Amino acid sequence: MKQRKLLIALTALLLVAVPAMAVFTGMDLDATLSNLRRELSYDYRQKTQIQKQLQEQYEVQHRQMVEIAKKCNDLSLMLYSQKQEYTFDVSYALEKVTQEYENFNKNRTPYDRIVGNLDIDINRYARLIESLRRLPPELEDLDVVPDSLAYHNDTLDAHLLHNASLLQQELEEKVDAITAMTQVQDTSATEEAVPAFILSEQGQRDRDTCLFYASELLMMYAASREMAMADSTHYQEARLRLEESYKYAREYYDIIENKVFVEGQIPWTTILTHPGRYWREARQAVGEKYRLSLVWKALYSDTVDYSNEQIANDNMLSNSARVYWWVIYILAFFILWGLSALILWPLYRFIKPLGNWIQKEQKPYIALLLACVLFLILSYESNLDDIARKALSIIQTFLGLLIAINTALLIRLNPSKLRDGVRMYMPTIITALIVISCRVLFVPNAFLNFVFPPLLLAMAVWQLTVNLRYGPKADTTDMVVGWVSFGITAIATVVGWAGYIFLALIILAWWYVQLAIILGIATIWDLTLLYKEKRLDKRVETYKARLTYVPEQAKDKLLFGATWFYDLIREVLIPMLVLGTIPTCVYWALDIFEFRDLYIQIFMEPFFSPGGGEGIRISLYSVLLLTFLFFLFRYVNKAAHTIFRTLKYRNFLRKNKRPVVRNDEINLSLGDSLINVTVWFIYAYWVIIKLNIPTGSLGLIAGGLSAGIGLALKDIINNFIYGIQLRRPGRLPGGLPQYLAV
């Protein structure tokens, strides 16, 4: 059956391969032309059928190219029109240019390769047409092919022109001779006398058909090449313009980062010396940034169209409208909160188990949780510009973190402590809302310099007050986190008063994200403790009761089979989460303010690289990754030891046919040592790879250590040998003479 299937497959393959290889066989010229006609006819039909599809693809590609060109122009105008006093606007423009440049290079259309492939096909068909034309009897110049697409060989053309009359006369004489011979000789003799290089009538018809198909295909490829060349020119112009903007953005990035993190803004102590002047500058900056009277035109006028280019480019109108939309978002959220409470009220009233299970103190926060979820669902909108989409993304991130905080408190805290716990975190939540409001509204620097430092001081005082008043009543974890929040807010206050406003904003945004994750980890920790109390302790006792074949003191080392899940969470998952949240929270905080490249500089770039690119490279990312691997390998090592001990005990019992193993009856130290060496050797290998430690230097270090260890152990080895001598005087173990011990 298998041979039959193989034979059928080979037969089908040959049937497919014979037409494709017909041109390459040793057939005569007429047969070759017949096969070529079939192939060109097939290619022509295929090309004609997909021509409409190719045209649609080209139109889509052309529209994408036009969009890229327009986006490059828009980005250039947006980038070069930003004032340096508006750091939020500048950082957004710089980040947008950088992002578009990276996307452009990632999704770059290969016009050069497309044009090159078309050139190959055009040249191939042009040469094929010229070869078909010159087959005897040779045709005159073809009018269907433009001279620019025709293939020219000047050397061959000059030679043929010089011998044209002789060739034509010779051809006519041979044709006359063939005609005379056909009247006397039979058909077979005539066929043998026909010169091989003269086409028959059927061959000439096939040649004409091949010329038609080849010329049509040549014109199709030429038209495609012309369109691709036109788009390629515009595409290269857009690329050069975007590259120019990107270089300018990178230079400007360095300036902005230097002002934000090194030079800073105006210290608050300096502002206090001339408060009136700086207040006027803040009011003037707000007036230039926002003109609230224009908002009514944007919101209520029937003539306003946000898709209109003039309105879209009116920064003052868009900034003013952004203020009103932000107020509307906040009001909508509180309305949703009230509606959520109304939706949940009949559920509590008519579903008795739900009403009895949920306490009165928990109901407002469950309604808050439902309001956040509804807002996230209803706020989804795809038809937004980039600025609005970014603002909506920041709002959704804030609400997602608020959901995490709220859920963690509902799970962890008793209803009696819930309100006090929420009060401990309220200053941090409100501070985070103020921070993202400054980012969403693109608040000018002058206003931030004047208003934000005293606002930070007020938030620090508020956090201190709630810590002193509600901290003793709250849970221990919440009290500790509350004081940490106060410390971070105080640090941000000092930084802000020193003039580093944007650094203070980043610190506060980072802490809000970090707080949500810390509370989530604390919730997981409490749930594991609850799991241990409710189920694991009983399971461990049951598991120990089944370990009747080992002594009591050895049972504690075999409990991994009962505690593996608990150990995985406490010893691997939670430490990884704690460490992993550090870069994650920093990335989110920097991404809010468009300083994403700082994340790469902080975590990805090596802070210790004495040998340059070829030596040791230690970065925060590599340190965190190796720490993750340490927790993982430690867990694997613990599991391997338990498995080894269990197998060793069972093997001993099976061989000796005994029910119990006595103390120190099995030597486990060698196996434990081998497991330790194997596991940590693999970990050391990963350390060497990730830190790019040169192996040559490791060889020198290993050689030095071995020599040092050998010298250090010399006396110990000698004492060991002498001890053996004293035990068996005269001969060493194995019958060796005593003098060999020296």
- Quaternary structure: single chain
Give the strand tally.
0
List SSEs in N-to-C order: HHHHHHHHHHHHHHHHHHHHHHHHHHH
Structural class label: mainly alpha
Keywords:
742 residues; disordered C terminus; 4 domains; mainly alpha
Can you characterise this structure?
The chain is mostly helical and 742 residues long. The chain folds into four domains: 20-261, no CATH class; 264-546, no CATH class; 547-693; 695-742. The protein has 27 helices and no strands. The protein has helices at 2-20, 29-80, 87-106, 111-133, 154-162, 164-182, 187-193, 201-263, 268-273, 275-289, 293-300, 309-312, 315-350, 352-357, 363-378, 386-412, 415-440, 445-470, 476-497, 501-546, 552-555, 560-592, 596-604, 620-656, 669-691, 695-712, 714-727. Mean pLDDT is 74; it is low at 1-22, 156-165, 182-196, 298-314 and 724-742.
List the helices and strands and how they pair.
Elements: H1 2-20, H2 29-80, H3 87-106, H4 111-133, H5 154-162, H6 164-182, H7 187-193, H8 201-263, H9 268-273, H10 275-289, H11 293-300, H12 309-312, H13 315-350, H14 352-357, H15 363-378, H16 386-412, H17 415-440, H18 445-470, H19 476-497, H20 501-546, H21 552-555, H22 560-592, H23 596-604, H24 620-656, H25 669-691, H26 695-712, H27 714-727
Helix pairs in contact: 2-3, 2-8, 3-8, 4-8, 10-18, 11-13, 13-15, 15-16, 16-17, 16-20, 17-18, 17-19, 17-20, 18-19, 19-20, 20-22, 22-23, 22-24, 24-25
